[in-house]
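user: Here is a favour to ask of a fellow structure person. I have my own habits and do not want them to colour yours. Could you put it straight underneath, so I can go through it closely?

assistant:
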Amino acid sequence: MTTLADPVPGGRPGDLRRVAALTADLTARDVHGIVLAYVDTTGVCRVKTVPTARLERAVSWGVGMSPVFDTFLADDSIVTTDVLGSPDGDLRLYPDLDQLVPLAAQRGWAWAPVDRITQEGERHPGCARTFLRRIVTDAAERHGIAFKAAVEIEWCVGVGPAADGAFVPAVRGPAYGAIRQTGLSDYTAALLAACAAQDIDVDQLHPEYAPGQFEISVGALDPVAAADRSVLVRQTIRAVAERHGLTVSFAPAVSAEGVGNGGHLHLSAWRDGANLHAGGEGRYGMTAEAESFTAGILARLPALTAVTAPSPASYLRLRPSQWAGVFTAWGRETREAALRVVTGTAGRRAHDANLEVKPVDLAANPYLALGCVIAAGLDGVTAALPLGEEITGDPARYGPDEAAALGVRRLPTSLPEAVEAFRTDDVLRAALGPVLADAVTAVRLGETAAVDGLDDARVAAAYRWAY
């Protein structure tokens, strides 16, 4: 369970009581440094590190880092808003000890996600992790709803960038094929071992569709811990790959053509230990609240794409008939719909039923993506939104009249189009708050300007190794 209390100058009392013993244990394991990690607005994981002996001070007083990173772009250039992007100011990074873990593939290091607060001890309004924790806390207090979440991770494994920076798959063979599994069996076995050593429960690890592509699915946790785990799993995938002389890309589109890397979100809403997506009187066992939650997300999908598909490269992936979910549609186990209702197998539905949100990739900050999706769904619950008719098959086959009758619309086809939808969405902007909402807009427009005039191949190349 992730800590639900904001850090404070001087340290959380519970953290102070246990940090000395934790430091001694890490030292006994030959852990010499702690990676303090957070994800910025553009989706890049930024870090600072401290010696293990300085962990107690970090827990008590934080570690300094400039707020300018809230408006960094993927190429490390900087944009500004009215309050962010200047060289002024400082923040304090506070590690969450509940999520601290020694890294199995980076000997001598441990890892922890951080919350960022101001020097005055107040919440930093640009901290995505704090934002998600607030959304989750509000859901519990106002609706009595808790969530379980997981992030699917797809990545492409290469033998190293070519001289021109191109991606060279480490293994060939048919999609989902045994040839790929055997070709990288040492790497994937080491990845499973590292995950097990870090207490990450893996549901599946398998070859995917694109050349050199794999996917890992992990167990569901509360949303903040699920976002933390997403960042940790990617750190682990990359570290294990480097030990095997391999490179990895989590970019939405490793090349301009073909299927990209997704980061689908799985969410289920719970009250008093009961899954609201199972055992109800609605379609496929959904309760009325689960249907309204789904409807709320569906209604805001165009604006959500500015958060869930935040890179110019995202729109090389979001193409019809490639299982990316590019239409405002839902369906049971329908992988071309943006929202896939997963019922689970008979006998497991009370536990496994959930909602999969498909137009999400790994350029997305997972804290922002989960928080905004939950906020959209809860708005649907508050308004008791009705859920429209489901679709089957590929929605690309519908003519204009049939699509309109079903409420099936194409999601934004470019990042500027997504930003325009986001700018007019009062619910998402209110949930984020003005500082974070403006940062999202500024960074997305900055990324758009950074690739102005580039063709698809050069856009893919610009982000291939960024995430």
Q: What stands out?
A: The first strand starts at residue 33 and ends at 39.
